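Issue 218. Parser rejects a valid record. Input:
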Amino acid sequence: MNRARAQLAGCVAALTLLSAGIAMPGIAQTRPVLGTVDAVVTDSSLVPLSDAIASVVGSNVQVVTGANGRFRILDLPVGRHILLVRRLGYEPVSAMLQVDAGDTLRLSFPLERVANSLDKVVVTATRPGGRLAEFEERRAAGIGVFMNEPEIAQRNSVTIEDLLRGITTTRFRAGSTPLKGCIHEQWYLDGVALSMSTKLVDLPSPKDLAGIEYYSGPARIPVQFKSTGGAGFCGVLLFWTKGG
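Output the parser choked on:
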């Protein structure tokens, strides 16, 4: 009986210390594995841009910059994340983030104005298919290699790497290393160019994709996705998510 009372008293004392924030030897305390992103979006002259949208790929996290061009993302899980930043009239950008527990990443995103912007027009009709309408047009033309959402679902691939193996004519870089003999192979996610440090494991899972398209050289690449790759240019891989 005395032994049971002593054990009970010890448990009560331990709980009291823990509730007071005092660490007990031998008792592991769980720390949240979360981080923070604190960033500013500007134009090329470093003027803050409001109404820019920052989103974390593979999550529901999406924030909009205020008048000072700043945004803040709290409680971001530890690990690697792709951040996309967009604003109407400017070229979108992406960044690969490495988030550490309790860390705050302080970043700056200068955006370039879209070249050769057109005068404002009145839209009287829209094409079916929304943002994937151009994907379907290019797919119908048959210039590149394509997989739409039903084809992706049919393959039932667990990883992007497995999914891309199904495109027999596609040569994709493993991890972040370009193919041998290739100087440049560009990846795009929802129309935004990704950093060359992006790996296949960083991309959304196949179940989150609405389409993939691949172009194997400069002559085949759609004009809006052309880049100055020079000799050895491998082409581009375009990934389109269901959520956009």
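Fixed in the parser; the record now loads. Residues 14-24, 121-128, 173-180, 228-232 have pLDDT under 50 and may be disordered.
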